Fold each of these.
Amino acid sequence: MFSRILIANRGEIAVRIIRACRKLGIEAVAVYSEVDRDSLHVKLADVAVCIGPAESARSYLHIPSIISAAQITDVEAIHPGFGFLSENSHFAETCQSLDIKFIGPTSKAMAKMGDKAMARKIAQQSGVPVLPGSQGVLESDDEGIKLARNIGYPVIVKARAGGGGRGIRIAHNEASLKTGMQQARAEAEAAFGDGALYIEKFLEHPRHVEMQILADEHGNVLYLGERDCSIQRRHQKLLEESPSPVVDGRLRKQIGEAAVALCKQCAYTNAGTIEFLYEGGKFYFMEMNTRIQVEHPVTEMTTGLDLVEEQLRIAAGERLQWTQNDIVPQGHAMEFRINAEDPDRNFAPFPGKIDIIAAPTGTDVRVDTFVYSGYRIPPNYDSMIAKLIVRGKNRAAAIQLGKQALSQFLLEGVKTTIPFHRKLLGNNNFVSNNYDINFIDENFL
């Protein structure tokens, strides 16, 4: 096992990784931007190194600064968390070239699955269902128009290097497709430096279902159960739950085995998530996230596994301790993303000082956060400041416990999504499982 690792991230995921390090007796090195000097992960780490100003491009996304911090502190490995450099294959390759273990997949596997058009090809080669669409990236807009005519509207235009809802446009006719391709390309070039696009048939009322996997460096791959992430706005998830209310045991096995086949096809290692769209009794590959997910605690609550601990063990060369038959999820878990946003103003970011925070506690209630009373939320980063996770014996019990925990979550000084989640849990269509990925846009925006 490692003796010291660096955490190339901030916020609650950095705190979460520190917790796993403590469990395994590993020293944790934090990095921070100037504006994050008072953040909780800095206070909890064994060592903390400032890597630059608030701007992400000059701190958390600046590979030379992070590598310098790793070399100065003499770490053996780097955990990228999620976001920032977590899916940057060049960063993973740089770590490898300097004999620093990257706690995640190999740069080669990451590059394959990070190229969403290539990932689609690999899924097809693995026998995983995909939606009708491009065989690769589009060579021209004319090719996209011709393809859309063949598969029929509506279609969705996606950036090869997209993420976070950027580089995506939906087209219901040829005119909107032409505009959509131009907009998606420009957005992707600005965000990712890569304007390559591909097209798929667009499902109008799907559910978003994803499968968590763990893969060691000895060829063993496990699926740990699915999460339903259909409650989202502008392709950004707000609530996740497991198991999915639309997935039964037979379908779970099919999706899980498809996820395992895909991982073996690209020699994937460490934690990862394969995302699918589900509609009309069928599921289709969407993309793979080659990192730990924001919503990983949902799976931890139902399986009892510590996924970050497993990431560390896998990266250290250990074999998975279980077989697929050992993975038997129990109960129903939900995660509520607590964002510093104003739901009444179209979820506009709401940075500022937290006057008071008192998180709910109790059996089967968990809060992951990096903020505290008196902390000032900077305007420079993602607005998520906490995650509330609950587990009940079934979905109804999880909803009831979620209502109770949200009512006890005291957070003053900034607007948050807590009132939104309370309203959501009182919505009859949500409670009766009558919704799809359009639910928030159609009911709350």
Amino acid sequence: MIEPLYIKSREGLSTGPNIGKSRTAVEYLARKIGLETLRSNFPILGISVRGKPLVYLDNAATTQKPQMLIDAVNRYYSRENANVHRGIHYLSEKLTDRYEEVRTKVRGFIGAKVDCEIVFTKGTTEGINLIASSFALPRLKQGDEILVTYMEHHSNLIPWQIVAQKSGAKLRVLPITDDGLLDLSYIDEFLSDRTKIFAFTYVSNVLGTINPVRDLTKRAHEVGAVVIIDGAQAIAHLPVNVQEIDCDFFVASGHKMYGPTGIGILYGKAPILSEMEPYQTGGSMILNVKLDNTIYAHIPHKFEAGTPNIEGVIGLGSAIDFLNSVGMYNISAYEEALVSYAYQRLLEVPGINIVGPFEPRTGVLSFTMDCAHPHDISQILDEEGIAIRAGHHCAQPLMERLGLPATARASFAIYNSVEEVDLLIKALHKVRKIFG
């Protein structure tokens, strides 16, 4: 099996997946990262829900926000508010500098070559739609193929359905195995010189599976395909280096990496972005406008029409500062041990079925119980102050492949603890008692 990228780490808490899976190992790593102090930086983790301390295990939907982000956004509105890229007064110039400094932070965080390869979007969904509309649709024709996988979130499926319908290209879907891995025995059948785009998730939001992104990218490039990676479920859990992966596009959402909602990251290789037409038009994305002709701005600004989500960008910068302060290798090591511990504890609950592989996995544990519907599980857990997700998780084709209408999903972040895992297991035993 191909190892995830972070196994190559020369720093951080772990050198690979053989770290101990026991409670003792998780507690050791928690002390190393200063988990108690880290948790105190998230105000919401101190609240009570239905008379119980909040146990927040819905991080795949959105993560909670550190105080440093809240302070940064408050400071922006109270002391720095202006528009960017347009004014020549003090506030606008200073804020424009801060705004563009965040672009530099993002570039460094994901290992892009230059700042102009970073486009700010509303999130992963808009990033994929931008690529589909501005890159794929003008280039694809009948006989071409778009390859996705059975793991995809609807955001990385529906845009490609639309592109296929409009262009005449064929949409193909790479199968998965019964244990939740991509079935790479079919890769030569599905990836050919007809494949013009290969769009796939780094980490499944249902299965937690970490896909071998470098190998998939290499295989796609060998047949001339362009690679788009949905990094929404990876960026807060694993070190990401787009140059090492060599993907052509990478998209992610700020709110899944401890940042604000409504802000996202689109990375694209500069030569490709330069050839693309704008996704939207209007102010801030032009160099010169005449009544009969417009010259667009250079990348990345030609893709950022209108007044941007300045608050979101400022908050995203603080979120990256937070992630860097902990260290992505530390985060991946701690979460790997925590999720492994949770996986083993879940197996203690009678009648439970965990969806997806034991490893390589990060962040997510989806499961069913033979005595209760996922919605009932979620409701009982909510009475105990535990927030999980129940449903199809915007991945209905995957659910159909698994033969399930829905799953319950506990998803983890750097601030979660073994004590919270234990509370989850205790609550699931309560579900069993009520419905079993």
Amino acid sequence: MTYSKHSSRNPEEVEVRLREAATRHKFGILHVHDLRQTLNSKGIELGSECRVYDVCNPQAASKALHTEMRVSTVLPCRISVFSENQGCTIATVRPTSLLEATGLDGVAALAEEVEREILAIIDEAA
């Protein structure tokens, strides 16, 4: 299941706010995938801005990995920002849904905590 929030801000403004919110919530942005740029470099026109941010809380990731190493298959968390409807949409797959899809045990409570933080980051960035 996904969570999304629309913003009247442009993607560049949302990126600044996203970085600030992530820091406040003790998350770091590990990498930004600029899908529009990547596709354009392959000769494919996307049109819309679309960036995917790999975000991580190192303490939560360490705790999860020490509990169940296979949780690495759904790390890091991803937040997408794409232009839409005279602004942009900020979206993510809920960490609890990702974990549920893996069938792994022992980290559900941690996934709920991470999800609360990710949704708060999105809400603040919007």
Amino acid sequence: MLTAEASRAVAELGHVDVVIGIPSFNNARTIGHVVRAAQGGLAKYFPQLRSVIINSDGGSKDGTRDAVLKASIEDPRLLLLNTPLLPVHRISLPYHGIPGKGSAFRMIFAMARQLGAQACAVLDADLRSVTPEWIDLLLRPILYAGYDFVAPYYHRHKYDGTITNHIVYPLTRTLYGLRVRQPIGGEFGVSARLIARYLDRRDWETDVARYGIDIWMTTIAIAEGYRICQSFLGAKLHDPKDPAADLSAMLQQVVGSVFALMEEYEAVWKKVTGSRPVDLFGFRFDVGLDPVPVNAERMRTALITGYRELQEVWALALQRKTLEELARVCQQAEAQPTRWRLEDDLWVRIIFEFACAWHRRRVQRGQLLRSFTPLYLGRVASFVLETEHMLSAEVEERIERLCLVFEQAKPYLVSLWDLAGRTPEPRLEKVSAEVKT
């Protein structure tokens, strides 16, 4: 798993107690702040531990790796009450393999195991709100409280993280019964025991190597019974994207990973009913958030275009009643641009039926996931119209109500999933048109 350069770095370091991993690709503008926050956190909260910050880079051309190596907290204006007993090492290395965040994580985890680290925390390279306290909150539950996996819990703008809010959080909560609010948040703490489990798996060459890595890590930790908690980190301020922008690759890889894990852990999630809270570390407080631009009109247009061009695929993925209701929604969206809605119960059935269509392979899986993008965009557009005048706290309550609809409909998912396993049906390998979003 390690390149010759990475192996030499491991040999020079010998042993560390803690690893901070930062995957990157062209993040020179922000990564220096992330590295300094990590250095400050290690120096302030874990001065007695031997530590290293590993930047796993995907071939940046903007000086990202130089920014990592130049980042320093050696500033006379910075007062650390605990003088670090050991220096914080910084390493920046290119990873090899499939381009993507998961491949970067694989190298970080492999180095952490070789170095004998007790715990590893990973941070996104585009964070602007990360503070030294994040390092404490991500590592302390593992080092001193016996947890294996620390998920982030933070405040986000009401239109930041729409894939999480409308698909991954409610579906993961419904399947596995734990309310992990940010299952694809980007910042995690992981124990040595769980790192070993990740590295022993054989699916690193799938979408896990790309955007699927976060939900893969979270699901394995939950489904296999590792000790899980969350830490409140405040606000997540990063480089947000308009949900109407081209997030199709991310959406397909994340949703495909969720569906693949549903097959692997079928025996686990079928027995789960309801959901329960997860231990939360840190003091919760309200924070200011950057606005996220949203182009609801573009998303509405994508839904209408998808309805015109992808009905052949949708007809194989969806039940007749669902397809009929969806047709009415698309017609309303075209006729009444500001008054239409894609309601929760229909959205939940669409998710469940797509999962079962993926399971029974009625449509080539890549094509099925691509056809899902306009539906996701339509759901987000509908949600924006409904919540544009709501405060963030009200929107959070609205997401919780959506989760309850998911949970109440779970028997429908189980029955449809079982039926899909018994009745193979004709597959559609190719359609004549695909929507451009």
